[in-house]
Amino acid sequence: MKRVKLIFLLVIIYSSFSSSAQTWVWFPGDYENWLGNQMNNRRTERGIDVPVQWKLDNHEPLMIFTKEVNLEKPEEIEVYAEGEYVIRAGWRLRVNGNKNRPTRITLPVGKNVIEIKVVNYATVPAIYVKGNTIKTDTSWMASPLENQRITVNMKHPDSPSGYYMNAGSGNLNDPNVKPSKFKLPTTPMGYVELKEMAGGKLYDFGKETFGFVKFHNLIGTGKIKLQYGETAEEALDSEHCETFRTYDVPKGKADYIVAHSNSLRYVFIVAENAQFDDVSLLYEYSPVEYRASFKCNDDELNKIWEVGRYTLQLTTREVFIDGIKRDRWAWSGDALQSYLMNYYMFFDKETTKRTMYTLRGNDPVICHLNNILDYSFYWFIGVYDYYLYTGDKHFLRQIYPKMESLMDFILERRNERGLVEGLKGDWVYIDWFDHDVDITGEVSFEQIVFCKSLETMATCADILGIDREAEKYEKLVNDVKSKLGDFWDEEKHAIVFNRKNGENSEQITKHANMFAVFYDYVSEKQKEQIKNAVILNPKIPAISTPYMRFYELEAMCSLGEQDYVLNEMKDYWGGMLKLGATSFWEKYNPEQTGLEHYTMYGRPYGKSLCHAWGASPVYLLGKYFVGVKPTKPGYEEFEIRPVLGGLEWFESRVPTPNGNIDVYAAKKEIRVTATEGEGYIIFNSTSLPKVNIGKIEKIGEHEFKVKIIGDGLEVKIEYETI
Amino acid sequence: MKRVKLIFLLVIIYSSFSSSAQTWVWFPGDYENWLGNQMNNRRTERGIDVPVQWKLDNHEPLMIFTKEVNLEKPEEIEVYAEGEYVIRAGWRLRVNGNKNRPTRITLPVGKNVIEIKVVNYATVPAIYVKGNTIKTDTSWMASPLENQRITVNMKHPDSPSGYYMNAGSGNLNDPNVKPSKFKLPTTPMGYVELKEMAGGKLYDFGKETFGFVKFHNLIGTGKIKLQYGETAEEALDSEHCETFRTYDVPKGKADYIVAHSNSLRYVFIVAENAQFDDVSLLYEYSPVEYRASFKCNDDELNKIWEVGRYTLQLTTREVFIDGIKRDRWAWSGDALQSYLMNYYMFFDKETTKRTMYTLRGNDPVICHLNNILDYSFYWFIGVYDYYLYTGDKHFLRQIYPKMESLMDFILERRNERGLVEGLKGDWVYIDWFDHDVDITGEVSFEQIVFCKSLETMATCADILGIDREAEKYEKLVNDVKSKLGDFWDEEKHAIVFNRKNGENSEQITKHANMFAVFYDYVSEKQKEQIKNAVILNPKIPAISTPYMRFYELEAMCSLGEQDYVLNEMKDYWGGMLKLGATSFWEKYNPEQTGLEHYTMYGRPYGKSLCHAWGASPVYLLGKYFVGVKPTKPGYEEFEIRPVLGGLEWFESRVPTPNGNIDVYAAKKEIRVTATEGEGYIIFNSTSLPKVNIGKIEKIGEHEFKVKIIGDGLEVKIEYETI
User: Fold this and answer.
1) Number of domains in chain B
2) Are residues B651 and B712 in the same domain?
3) Over pLDDT 90: what percentage of chain A?
4) pLDDT over 70 at A17, yes or no
5) Residue A247 forms contact with B (CB below 8 Å)
6) ipTM of the complex
7) Which of A463, B88, B418, B528 shows the greatest Cβ crowding within 10 Å of its Cβ?
């Protein structure tokens, strides 16, 4: 048994350095933040550029990359870099870097400290070193300061410096493609229908998609105008379509690919003094792996899962964005859900890390993430989720200084009770409310996510062995937790919305209540009370965004209400499918009809029809029906609690860092195969179950547990579902 | 009288906004820092690029410029910008900016809030708006955040935000020259002698200078190598010359200007497969105004003053740098002296502000300026000096947030006694010492400049009306001041060098002692004791850099020892002139001979022969002989204490923000004309003096005072010098 564990440990260590191959390296976070914001800043609204509405943080313009090597024989290395650079090895060897071709230098036998200093304002300083034994990877160090000039962070003297770190990387392994030139891949795609209309041609690509429109044999002296639409109505509506762009026809007959990629299902093309033979699309996509699968006896649910995957695929770009039509921005609240869905779908670590770095930016912290108080808190939670699912301690160590400085900003802004409030400049968002809400004072929801963030700090400091910091945050957690009780209304069986001047308000919404349930911040008795008095209570305002429905359904799942959730999914998400959705929407109100469905923000096509937060069923199914989740970081240990929730059977694969967990569940049979880690299958049975490998352990009335080893062997359980 | 004062006040206000004309604007400090570091990073050493050895801070890549206007009729404006930009005015008017030509938009009648959002990573976001009534100036606001998202700095809640400020500007008034394209002007200059040598041609430009070498009718297929020298020996020494560069000959016969400007008096040109008709120089210079003058009966002193001016001229570039051959960097310690010399020479505000911004960079502060503990302190002192000489309160307000964040960094790093020590990463420099010095523990010199910096914070907070901050710093000043006494050695009549574990060390150097004298941190009795026991004591190690000789002579001047100082100047600076210096050196040791003079840092031509800190006589003469200094900010009030110090007579002009003070002094006559402010002429006389305007006031034995109004009328005093 011990042996097996050791192997897994090695796998995990290897995995956390999996980008350690010969690769481009940079200062951790800087490139990710830069790249993510290149995406963010590509947003347009009716032809007008819309850069982000929060602070953009810049990168370190001067970076020193160092690596100590001990050579048995002289070695020639090739150095590629983005920026002006100088290479130094020892006192005598100093070379100016070539900008347009690799610089070759030969290092002498013995100990060499290679130092490559890069200056680059326009894009992020980065290097790629290719030698026989010497190659850039995350074992190189990166710092904006010379080694002997690195000062201690006096606020956190026990913590590692955020300014002398292992270099960052991200699977950019081609020395001839500089990181700033990174582009998502594209693949050609044809339309499914063309309608010649008065004034132009309407192309239907058959489903929500994203890419560059290509004109075949374009010729003329005029302009081409592209009106994009998620619906035909939008594409045809020159007054109101959300995105359009006009291009001058280039000289000479040629195939012409427009410079900007866009979301679309339809494109209406108006040509003025221009002809072309045909149009196609270069579908632009993130090359994520489809590592998960889900199939069950309910075809509608299968379709929901597939459309969820496609929605997540489309909104997974350089970073996880909210929606592909609008805003095309990384939002911390939206991203947290994308991360979770991703762990049950692509298990793509790079996009997750890039998004977290993009959201966090650089120091100093002078405002909340996306300007939103709650969005700062989600970010901490996302970092811990990442660690829990991937076991990537290396990343945790790298990002920890940024966690500290964001938390410092938050702690400085507490009120005299040590709780958070929306201060000048803070946007207290929580959710779109259809009714008026007073968001001033101590808002219970914010305290809950604040408390969770402090827990995250304590846990992460502990994992990294920074004991004094862990203790400090633990104390803060206890303090905030002790005050959460203040918000409980014993009569209403609910957490009230906010407190002002020491008095609870009368407002109640579901948000704080459902978070308290799945964060386990209330007693089991309170959970039941919340379920009935709040979540299922029609007098409490219904939640109107898929964003918060995500958590509402998660709360219900965590209360064992999968049957309820399954019905809701079929009803709500199935409802969108019935309306012809090919991806899930930003908002869906079954009460609306016709074109009403596309309106939002007071605009006829304001709503995004492909919004990441619309895809939550893929997460809920993976975590609460298939029932797979890590109980130790990186699936070193995991739990599988299959719940049919009204289904006859399902069959699903959930990805783990370096393997998979396959689960088949039906009313009399559960079959599980795992290929790494070890875990427990937990299930209910009215009869005494049987298992082919290992042994059955009874852990409650009708509740049983079977241990499973990630050795690729199928564990088969015969049981009787309740 | 009141009336006169009012006029001056208006002049001062106008002056502090003097760059408010229609001009390029940016986020204050960002462009200055960027530009200064473009200069810094042009340093080379024997053909190898040497970027700065400290942290480079980047600019805000997204900037929002706003201005509210109230129009009586519609107005068309032209918007120029550096970066991608979007213009918004109200909800309806939104326009993408053109990158290559100005964007024209027409604003409607009534109240308009113009918002121009610029994104630029490569260079600093900047705009220039040209309209009939609407024009960019420092009344525009600049912020990296939308107005409603600007948070309070919780550490300094009473202080103005450093992230919503009046736009910065710097006399860049041509819309067609983007700030990033700013270049110092050049003017053609010929050599004075050409020597054809084996292997190449040696050109002598007659004096230390700086510029781009130009080849006339260059043709060939090979290379030209330029070996620069401050001496002929250096230019001819291919093995050891400090700067050289090789260029490929471009195709076709043409005049060719090399891409890099360099310091030189001599250039040795080695042509390989290349011919040219002639060579000249494009002298590259800062177009500062020669506002001061000095002439006296001593020709050597006149020459010293002129060579000092030329030294300062050459080292005044985009920013004030140390020396033009090496390091070509802005160093805070060197810059402080350049600022002071500048007030008595060019009174160039822009270069001073640019240098301060360059040195300070952006938040977060993670290391000392130039990595040097003392250099952080000099920076505060320089800011106050700037305010004192210019009266530019607008700048003080703009830079104050950067003062706070640097001081926060310093305060966090104090020891348990509240004093500063060199911690990990800090370079405790003070001076180049020829003997071993233990710089650990509480170093007295550092406490003195720390105390002065705290005083500066208190004063500036007070000036800006930030009372709680002023109080806080005042308390800190008193605390540190009360501990300065610990360093006094009653037996040795000196401030000891440092304290460790509560015990004074035996080390004594002049540094802390002379600073304590002119900062008035010791009693009059102690000052006399220091003069004799330290400054004039041959057993105390002599100061070996003109850098610290600056302060040594300043201390002696402040003790009324002008005679001594005059002799030292003639001896030391006169000594360099006798060796043929055309600018003053980084270091000069009269004991050395021949080529020894050019050695430093273990390299035969390592010494810089044009170093700003070598020019201190221009400051000492202006402040302590001509005796002019402001006693209220911006020369609103000033003092003139002419001291002949052994001279027969002198005649000098000292610039003030918007005027001049002309002083002639001889043994029996003083004549002063001032054109702004009001002040006092203070002088000693053995007889009762006479004055043509105003009246004589006796203020001590043989000491008299005459009030002068800056009305341009000459005040003539007849007296008898002692």
Assistant:
1) 4
2) yes
3) 94
4) no
5) no
6) 0.94
7) B88
